[in-house]
UniProtKB/TrEMBL annotation:
Belongs to the short-chain dehydrogenases/reductases (SDR) family. Keywords: Oxidoreductase. GO terms for molecular function: oxidoreductase activity. This is Short-chain dehydrogenase/reductase SDR. The keyword Oxidoreductase applies. Gene3D superfamilies: NAD(P)-binding Rossmann-like Domain. PANTHER family: DEHYDROGENASES, SHORT CHAIN, ESTRADIOL 17-BETA-DEHYDROGENASE 8-RELATED.
Length: 231
């Protein structure tokens, strides 16, 4: 997403708890002639989030688009195998992080003449069961609900939408692809696309939703799932 927005001419503030990952992303953006800074931050910590927003506004004056994309899986654990610690960690990052960063960024998002844009990464697990375990599925349902309420409460000053990816080849899923290739193959073969997606395919949809071409999209949860939810 950071690379896609930079390629479209945006000044990017990339945020991650992984400093090495941040350096890699910002270096790629700079090598392609884009503008970006990397800020180390923990989305589950209010003080950290507020510091991130302060640094972003100090650098660029405002925030036009906020993408809440941080998330972790729960190893598909059902309720009986979900510890309280796992539940809290998944909720802290996947749902509380969306709340904290959005709340901290609201003044900047509403500061300009144009509407601010918030795009939250939910999941097909935000619409159906089976795309994750108890904690992950609950957190992503929460992200969609939060997105709708944000749109209801702050439209038209804030235009809030979510994307619901299916199986995407990312750092989050690489272990599954390597360790259980047959299961992954079976999963993707059951979708009309008969494959999993590259991260760029989600990023392009997110960039579209952020653009003026999607100006009448409010409070939606857009599936980017290769047809996973077609039935």
């Amino acid at each position: 997403m950071a690379l896609e927005f930079a390629s479209e001419g945006a000044s990017v503030v990339a945020v991650d708890i992984d400093e090495d990952g941040l350096d890699e992303v910002t270096s790629k953006i700079a090598a392609n002639g884009g503008e970006a800074i990397g800020v180390v931050g923990d989305v589950s910590d209010r003080d950290s989030v507020e510091a991130v927003v302060e640094q972003a506004t100090d650098e660029y004056g405002t925030i036009d688009v906020l993408c809440n994309n941080a998330g972790i899986l729960d190893d598909y654990a059902p309720v009986g195998e979900t510890s309280e610690e796992l539940w809290d960690r998944v909720m802290d990052i996947n749902l509380k992080g969306v709340f904290l960063l959005t709340k901290a960024a609201l003044p900047a998002l509403m500061d300009g003449d144009e509407e601010g844009v918030v795009i939250n990464t939910a999941s097909i697990a935000g619409k159906v069961a089976g795309g994750g375990g108890a904690a992950y599925t609950s957190s992503k349902h929460g992200v969609i609900g939060f997105t709708k309420q944000l749109s209801h409460d702050y439209g038209p000053e804030i235009r809030a939408n979510a994307v619901c990816p299916g199986f995407i080849e990312t750092g989050m899923t690489e272990d599954m692809i390597e360790q259980t290739p047959d299961e992954v193959h079976e999963i993707v073969q059951e979708t009309p696309a008969e494959r999993y997606a590259e991260p760029e395919e989600v990023a392009q949809v997110v960039a579209f939703i952020a653009s003026d071409n999607a100006s009448f999209m409010h409070g939606t949860a857009v599936d980017v799932d290769g047809g996973w939810l077609v039935d």
